[in-house]
Amino acid sequence: MSTAETEIRRAPEPATIVEAGPSAEGRPAAAPAPVARARWTFWRLLGSELGLTFRRPRNLVMLGVLAAVPVLLGVTLRLMTADDEGGVGGIIAAAAGNSLMLTFASLSFLVTLLMPVAVSVVAGDAVAGEAGAGTLRYLLAAPAGRTRLLAVKYLNAVVYGFAVTAVVALAALVTGLALFPVGPVTLLSGTTVPVAEGLLRILVSVGYVGAGMAALAAVALAFSTFTEVSIGAIAASVVLVVVSQVLRAVPQLDGLAGYLLPTWWNDFDGVLRSPVDTAALGEGLLVFGAYALLFGSVAWARFTGKDITS
Amino acid sequence: MRRGTFVRWGVPVAAAAVIAAAVGAGPVIAAVGGPPALPERSAQQLLADALAAAEKSPPPMSGTVQQTASLGLPALPAAGAGSPVALLSGSHEVKVWYGANGKFRIAMPTQLNETNLIVNEGQAWYWDSAANTATKLHWQGGARRSPAPSAPAATHADLTPQAAAEKVLEQAGEHTAIRVINTAEVAGRPVYQLVLAPKDDGSLVQEVRLALDGETYVPLQVQVYAKGAAEPAFQVGFTQVTFTPPAEENFTFTPPAGAKVEERSLGADGEAGKETRPGDADRAARGLKVVGDGWTRVAVVKASAADLTGGTPSDGERQGERQGEWRGHGGDEADGRAVVADLLKKATPVSGPWGSGRLISTKLVTALLTDDGRLLVGAVTPEEITEAAGVR
Q1: Torsion (CA) B112, B117, B118, B121 in degrees, nearest 10
Q2: Strand partners, B64
Q3: Cα(A107)–Cα(A98) distance, rounded to whole angstroms?
Q4: Which residues of B touch A252 (CB under 8 A)?
Q5: Is A33 helix (H, G, I), strand (E, B) or coil?
Q6: In terms of DSSP H, where are the helices of chain B?
């Protein structure tokens, strides 16, 4: 079956994919406003995709584990600091002193591996999982086209990436508020900002880390279009993250670090400086954009030209 | 293969090309450069203008300073990121804010940590977020500090800048070929590069380039090139700079609640690592001898391996000092000694009519520790240093 055939054949959408099914006004409106209909299909497809993602037990378990880590971290800290003063330093000590700092400590702890793994699972599964299960061709039968389907898959993974970040931040925030004193936040630069501004800075760092996860999602999605075995795509992107982290740790390869995606994830600590290190944050966002563009276009080139056999 | 496939894969290729262009654009634009952005200047004119500018206080500015060293040292044992020893390899970044009246702030951001030095009207604070400690610093006497390396020959204040420039060039001309490049750019600003090249073949230094801002004559960059290397072995300079007065809150510091507050007075025990320090004349005078002149000067100190690796603190520190002076940073005692011990293990044994010893050579500096208890250090070739070892 050639690509052209697949794209031209705009069969009516099978009711098995989207539980709502083609709605009443959908069918008669097809002739006068095809563009509007396609756009609507896009959002409906995204909605059903998100529904599937956030109902899938596996994905929920990953979110649960990620939410548990900050709680564990906070409780450990609480017990530890009750025992003896001092001994620990830096951000960990700061987290014990202020409820909001636990969020930053948790993000920096989880962003190195655990959050990327969760995002890789969802994004790596996006295309390969459907192909493996044999449901991809039914999806392609929807009048959305391959480009739109890929966009839906990517947006779905991006939303999950932001959800992962938000869940970690929220769990840490709630734990921090419950266990540690609330008060003005001491930044890394030694200046203090009010609680409201601290919350705002948490919001900015969630946005930044979420964008970093979105860039990883593009990489995993690109891997996903090359295989029909979803575990292969997931493993490939997790291995990429781990290898990048190892390469970053080798001092002799200092020059390489700037090109690796994980190098930039931790730069959310720019929000904790005074003045906010907008240059570092901006540069990080540019890198994320470049990664998303490159791997997104690879995924597109592969997916739109691929022969779908299953 | 269908034609469509090629067209389709053209998209990611184009994306890659755009990204590569964006990444590579900076250096390429700087290299292509085009016609010189600044009018030509002779070394004397440039130096005179720079000295005239140095007499006034430098304009308020802020920016990012990056320091890169690839001295070709054997792999150093892992030292803490904040340790001065770490500055001997790799690249490091500090942020600098400089306001009028000698107010300044230097911040060294590292992963989820930051150290700050804030100086404002006789008050100085050193803040270390990792230790959660704010240190109030006092110092005796008129130990002046400036964020940027100050222009040479500030002592010639009695002369006019023109006369001072002439004098400096006359003295330097004996050993150094001096020229000016007016096409270079540092941190996006056109600069004059004063290039000092040693005339002596025995020196390991190819040339030293000092970049002065084309408008304000503030030194923006210093590069030291080793012989036969295209990349500088040592470089410190701005990667980003703006000449607008920084926000006032950069220069005020109140210790945050919950932080340890300490007071410390400088001078008695130097707060190492933050500043370029003036040559410690009295300490150096103890047992320091200089052989040769100009760029091939070799410093000779009395020292033995035992002193350097774990002996008395004063000697260990002195070693740090000797190395440190060259790079503009003092040594940290414990780290310094560990590094020296490690270096000595990797040193090459050498011998000659002058005796025998162990030689450590890097791209820029050669050190010889003789078995009869002398340490020779200089920016010279190994041949030159063994020759110096023969001079008693």
Answers
A1: 170
A2: B95, B240
A3: 15
A4: 75
A5: coil
A6: 3-32, 43-55, 161-173, 281-285, 305-309, 313-327, 333-346, 382-390
Q: Please indicate if any CB of chain A lies within 8 Å of the CB of B131.
A: yes
**Sign of CA pseudo-dihedral A283, A284, A286, A287:** positive
Q: Cα separations (Å) of B235 from B12, B67, B310, B333, B370?
A: 37, 6, 31, 24, 31
Per the CB < 8 A criterion, the answer to whether B336 and B321 are in contact is: no
Q: Do residues B340 and B368 touch, judged by C-beta distance below 8 A?
A: no
CB contact under 8 A, A269 and B12: no
B19 inside 8 A of chain A by CB: yes
Tell me the C-alpha distance between B254 and A192, whole Å: 9
Q: Is B354 on the interface with A (CB under 8 A)?
A: no
Tokens of B74: 């054997």
Strand extents, DSSP E, chain B: 61-70, 89-98, 104-110, 113-120, 123-128, 133-139, 176-181, 185-186, 189-198, 205-213, 219-226, 234-242, 260-266, 288-291, 298-302, 348-352, 355-361, 366-370, 374-378
Find the residue in B nearest to A297 (Cα): B12
pTM > 0.95 = no
- Residue B60 touches chain A, beta carbons under 8 Å: no
Chain B residue with CA closest to A265: the answer is B111
Q: What is the ipTM of this complex?
A: 0.77
CA distance A53 to B143: 65
The angle that helices A114-133 and A145-179 make with each other, rounded to 10 degrees, is 150
A68-125 pLDDT per residue, tens: 999 999 998 888 876 555 445 566 777 777 888 899 999 999 999 999 999 999 999 9
Question: How far apart are alpha carbons B340 and B350 in whole angstroms?
Answer: 18
Amino acid residing at B129: S
Q: What is the DSSP letter of A16?
A: T
B257/A contact by beta carbon, under 8 A: yes
Spell out, as residue ranges, where chain A has pLDDT lower than 70: 1-34, 82-91, 309-310
- Only one residue has tokens 């769990």, namely A171
Contacts of B247 in chain A (CB under 8 A): 275
Q: Are B208 and B47 in contact (CB under 8 A)?
A: no
- Residue B198 is given by DSSP the state E
Give which of B5, B114, B231 to mutate to test A binding, by max A Cβ within 10 Å: B114
